[in-house]
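User: Can you fold this complex?
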Amino acid sequence: MRIAISTGGGDAPGLNAVIRAAVLSALDRGWHVLGIKRGYMGLLGEDEVIPLSRDDVRGIAHLGGTILRTTNRGNPFNYPVRQPDGSFIEVDRTDELMDNARNLGIEALITIGGDGSLAIAQKLHEKGMRLVGVPKTIDNDVSGTVTTFGFDTAVATAIDAIDKLHTTAQSHDRVIVMEVMGRDSGFIALHSGVAGNAHAILIPEINWDIDKVCQHIMHRDALGKKFAIVVVAEGARFEGEVGVMGESMPGQAIRVGGVADRIARAIQIKTGKECRSLVLGHLQRGGMPTGYDRLLATRFGGAATEAVANKKWGHMVALQTPHIVPIPIVEALKDHKTVDQSHDTVRTARRIGISFGD
Ligand code: F6P
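Assistant: Here's the predicted assembly.
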């Protein structure tokens, strides 16, 4: 058996642990393993396809990033091709991709990615590619799995930042608004905000009002608590709009962000308190995976190999505590996982006085 592994979309801490576990468990079965570089680029002649041995994956489980590299601009169904006049058109290059996979003798693919990459995987599966998916995203917004690896590390990074912001905000009697990732789902903001003792948490799932946020801050102020920390998910709407930051490259989704600065300015105007903002950004995607993420990623990698052995084509591995099970990728793609407002974490936050601005 000859299998290949690819990592697509934005990176997440734990990718290398998945690769390592998938390679070791495949070699254990006597299979050959190839690594496709930079998403599907390696299968489109835009990057390499390399053999992966035990030596190649030795000592990588604790490393952030991905030894196979990644891209969020390489959708083979809508591949951006530059025209002589500098404009771009989108071209379907999947026939070429399938031919190259066949010529390399690839019998099955383990594709590690978030909702975008899983949607591509589903379409490739419908085209005849034998593949198994592994869900990945720091945003934790993939349905069908209790959580994705990378999320716990991102939350730990955000909590560390909130802890640091507390001391400086307190020294200066300031309001600091910290923006975390989460374009459609507010899990990172919710979990880090509750665990890090934020005073307000603003997420896409809960309609919030800047005046309510200001009231909460001024209520604290009246009680002598002169500083406040607001954690906001990048996808939270301000005056009904999602913030867009900078230009996207061809083939890339819009770059969401900038809401923290708008909120900080508004709070300063409305309350007269000194405000600052911070975008935590890609710090959340980098660094060593936590023990939880390393373990989950390792379990996912081993389960993906088993799913290949069981010919679970078009399935992805999912955590359904305490088990890792294969579920159809289409099932996971049906809904975007979002924060359920009746969830205990939201209710706990309300009980301990955290405002959602609603
Ligand atoms: O991994 C998903 C995500 O973290 C989103 O929350 C964020 O909007 C996006 O990645 C940013 O990705 P990039 O800057 O790599 O395009």
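The longest helix spans residues 151-172. Residues 10, 72, 114, 137-139, 181-183, 234, 256 surround 6-O-phosphono-beta-D-fructofuranose (CB under 6 Å).
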